[in-house]
Every structure is written in structure tokens, then in C-alpha cells.
Amino acid sequence: MRKTIRSTLTAVLVVSFSAALSSPSYASASDCVGGNGTNDSYQTCTTVEGTGLRVNRWQTSTYSSLGGQNVYARFYVNGKRVHTVKKYTGAPKRLAVNFPGKLPRKYRDGTRLCNVWSVNKRYKSCITVHK
Description:
The chain is of the alpha+beta class. The chain has one helix spanning about 1-20; strands spanning about 25-35, 45-50, 55-65, 70-75, 80-90, 95-100, 105, 110-115, 125-130. The strands form two sheets. Strands 1, 2, 3, 6 and 7 form a five-stranded antiparallel beta sheet that branches. The protein has a four-stranded antiparallel beta sheet with strand order 5-4-8-9, with no helix packed on it. It is elongated.
């Protein structure tokens, strides 16, 4: 009986360890600045998903109280603007755009990824890529 329990426990640990090695665990980081809630036009959010230094998804969002206008999402890497995305807003609503560059991509440890929207230029949300 004792040997059976030990064998079963060993098998479970080996299977769990193998599964952990074979399936990547995705990490995500999110930062929201400004505003006081989900539908506040002065809030900017940055969300990044990936593993370690590899970024698989980079998204920014905001709530725009503007209607019938173009707004712009700006993407920064270590303070340098690398992309701008124009988004038309027909009515006040939550807006979200993905990084338009090539992903997945590896960044150096400590790289700062930031976003700013034209409707709330005072607020820059950022995350830091790390191992």
C-alpha cells in the first residue's frame, strides 16, 4: 500500500513537472494612470503579455468622451516614439488598439514600454520588461 502511494505520488509529480515545462506560462503586466474609473476620459492603460523578455501582445486603451473625431494612440520604447495609431471615435466609448509593429519581439531587460493618447496627453502609462 505504501509503495503504491509513493509510486502514484511520483507519477503525479513527474506529469505535473513535464506539463509545466511543455506549456509556456504567459505573464502579463498592466498599468493604468489618470482618471478615477473605467469610463474616465483621462485614463490611459497599457497591457503587455509575454514571457520573460519576449512580448507577444502590447495593447493600449482609453475612454474617449469625444465623438466624431480622430484620436491617436502613441507607442514609446524607452522614451522614443515608435508608432502612432489613428482611431476614429464615432461616439464616446472605450478605445483600444494593439501595437502595430512586429510581435512577438524580445526587448532588453529594463525596457520601458509606454502609451499616451491624444485625448489625455498628460497621462503616460508604462510597464517595464524584465526577466
